[in-house]
Amino acid sequence: MAESLLHENIYTLPNFLTFTRLVSAPVIGYWVLQGDYTNACILFGIASITDGLDGWIARRFNMQTIIGTILDPMADKTLMTILTVTLAAQNLIPIPIATIILGRDAGLILASFYYRYISLPEPKTFTRYWDFSIPSAEVRPTMISKVNTVIQMAYICLSLMAPVFEFTGHVGLEYLG
Fold first, then answer.
1. DSSP state of 177
2. Where is the signal peptide (predicted)?
3. Is residue 21 left, alpha or beta, with left meaning phi > 0 and alpha meaning psi from -120 to 50?
4. Distance between CA atoms of 166 and 55, rounded to whole angstroms?
5. Is the pLDDT of residue 138 over 60?
6. Rounded distance between C-alpha atoms, residue 169 and residue 50, angstroms
7. How crowded is residue 71: how many other Cβ atoms within 10 Å of its Cβ?
8. What are the helix (H) ranges across the chain?
9. How confident is the model at residue 176, as a pLDDT?
10. CB neighbours (10 Å) of residue 45?
11. Whole-angstrom Cα distance, residue 2 to residue 86?
12. Cis ω on the peptide bond leading into residue 123 (within 30° of 0)?
């Protein structure tokens, strides 16, 4: 008798918002590298708003999905990684701070790949591993992780705004770094 596999609806508004944040990250990074800080700031602001909005909508309207619990931190990490690298390349954040941010995020990403693998129901195949409509493990960020994300986003936001509002080298921004 064939085993019936559990699938969930992954086509929800919160997942769409999260996916747009994921897709916007390379665009923002490109604009940073091109020195188009104004457009980068605007799109980063929109991406930051979707970070809170997607979770609120998912909880409020019972649209939570397993893929959403995976995509949301993935979108956060992608956005933070691309902006950390591009802002460091533009000398808007110090390399040691960029290294700390990237090292922590790399560890979290590797752990999430492992956690997905060990929690995926049998049979474990390459295709099933990447089929996010098959629930495996729900990822729930801790409060300290949420606070860390907010602090990192604020730091990145201020660093991104610095050339737009001409406060690069400001003593307050230097102390944050």
1. -
2. none
3. alpha
4. 33
5. yes
6. 29
7. 23
8. 13-33, 37-60, 66-89, 95-119, 126-129, 143-161, 171-176
9. 55
10. 13
11. 50
12. yes
Report d(CA 170, CA 162) in Å as an integer: 8
Residue 70 to residue 64: CA distance in whole angstroms? 11
**174 token code pair:** 């230097």
Residues 6+ apart with CB under 8 A from 66: 8, 132, 135, 136, 137, 138
Other Cβ atoms within 10 Å of 36 Cβ, number: 15
Q: Quick one: DSSP state of residue 92? A: S
CA–CA distance, 18 with 58 (Å, rounded to integer):
11
- Provide mean pLDDT across the span 29-44: 97
Q: pLDDT over 70 for what percent of the chain? A: 88
Domains identified in the chain and CATH numbers:
13-176 (1.20.120)
List the structure tokens of 132.
């996010």
Provide the pLDDT for residue 2: 45
Q: How far is it, in rounded angstroms, from Cα 64 to Cα 80?
A: 23
- Between CA 129 and CA 143 the distance in angstroms is 28
